[in-house]
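Re: export button greyed out
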Amino acid sequence: MLKIEHVTKKFGDFTAVNDLSLQVEKGEVFGIVGANGAGKTTTFRMILGLLDPTDGAITWNGEKINYETSGLIGYLPEERGLYPKLTVKEQLLYFARLRGMKKQDILPKIDYWLDRFHITQYKHKKAGELSKGNQQKIQFIYSVLHEPELLILDEPFSGLDPINVELLKSAVAEVNAKGTTILFSSHRMEHVEEMCQQIAMFKQGKAIEKGRIREIKQKYGKKVIVLYTEEDLAFLENRNDVLSYEKTPYGVRIKLKNEQDSQEIVKEAMKKGFIRKFELEEPTLNEIFIQKVGEVHD
Amino acid sequence: MTKFWIVLWHTYKKHLTSKAFLISTIITMLLIFVMSNVGTFFSKSEQEDVKKIGVVADSSRIEGYVKNEIKQEKKKITIVSYSNEEEAKEHIKNHDIQAYLVLKQNKKDFLTGTYKANEMSQQSLLFELEHILQMVKQKEAIYQLHVDPEKFNQINRPFVLEKETLVKTSHSDKQIKHSLVIVMGTLFLIYATVVFYGNMIATEVASEKSSRVMEVLVSSVPATQQMFGKIFGLALLGITQYAFFFLSGSYSALNHLDTLKEVPTSTFVYGIVFFTLGYFLYAMILAMFGSLVSRIEDVYQIISPINIVLIIGFALSIAAFVDPTSKAIMILSYVPFFAPMLMFLRVSLLTLPFWQIALCIVILLISIALFAYLGAKVYRGGVLIYGKASFANIAKALKLLKKDAK
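Workaround output, generated via the alternate export path:
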């Protein structure tokens, strides 16, 4: 279990992480979302022991993570990197040996993962000659090659095409199924929503929202009502309880201040004319994120 | 500690198998071989062809003198005698001889002579002949004036200035003369190695940062082990490279063994000591600087002050050759940045009390330890900083690691 207790990190006057407490259960996939500069990478660096927290404590299974335990941790940094002049095999060997593995244990694993990503033909190619997507696969491989207990993925899907995103997602799921606890950050809410049981939303170094996705959504309430109709319902836009009104190809999409007001809206709309279908929509994580963080991000 | 060895070996192997290393090593080896044997090649090629020179003399005595001198001086010249010039000219046409000398007795000058040939291009031959004829003239003079050859030799014997050093352990004049080349060579080697390998260390660190490999490395290997692994890995590479250089120079060294024997052993020992200390001092600093930049293009900018310090040190040591006893040189030889070169020079050319050498070595060791400590600290933070290269990053890097006041 990863435990982050009241962790604060200050760089001079700047507070990068502010009184952060998180708990990631063993075997879980935990997502961290937040805008750029929200403190995600600093948090990861503190978990890895690269930076010392100004205050608070971080433990993995009750112990502080340091270089003695670095073999238990896998890390895919946001800024990716490979040695451009070394072959794929050479660098995977080097990285895995630095994580404490023996050469004879590494080689079959390299073969397995290269095969898993359909890139066996690049084993003896120099990394600088590979496409960006293939480089990213190699980088993912070196973060999981030593079968870590805890895997930290900083923006693992950024810059990948949809096919490779799927490939990588299934690999993450496979690693997780073998018992690895995964902590990952992303700007893409749909990835987080799909893969994580728990999330934390970061804003200016604080976790402004955290917990199970389902619970967060429930707390937020069903505040979106979708009406399938051809009628002009523009008059609803001026109501006090309507936050936003949006015309769609099939009807309208209305955001409300409160879930309870939805019934009133439906009644008003039905007075106007024929409503084929209506539904109350769960908010997407994206919507919650935008409302909470207050700015639009990719 | 095992990770230190993995980094060391990785760094060593990566560079050892790189094309740049192979090519530069081979070219330098060739260069060393050619340069160190240049003298031997030239003298060999000259020895090969024996020159045939005709002599038309008006007395067989003079002809005998000439043949005798050539024999004594071991010149590769064969003398062919002719009774008249026509005969000699005929043989020049047939290329039997290259040139001929017309030698005549003379009361005033004892001997006059003319060199006749189709072309006057063989300067070294003319020089040799002039030298021989000078001796022949002396013999002819002795003959004509009836001087006792013994007495003439006594008069002619060069003056010898005896030299004696008063301090017992001092290097003899002969030793210093033979050491000069070795000292100069070692100084240049220290300078070149520190520039070349020091820059390599800085570039190595910066390239790992620019390719962002650093993020992964730093999460699995402590920064200190990583930094020292690199420094020692490249040191090992240097040793390998110099072993090859030594090999290519050994042929020439064998030819000059007598000269090398004259160089005191201490010069070699101090050479190695100051070479090593110099390398590690600058390696620590340059690794630290390398960790401050995130793009390879910025490396040269940030390490240029160090390169300037090195050039100053090298220039000072060249200047110190003229007067190694100067006060300024003595003081500067205790400054860590200059000490490896200047103290080595002083130790080889002067007789220093041992405490001075020891003090200098201690100063260097302390500086290395200090820079290693500071370097490791800055390195740890520096590798996490991206952005513009600047010395302000040193403060930033140190701040990054501090547990800030609440």
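The radius of gyration of chain A is 23 Å. The button fix ships in the next patch.
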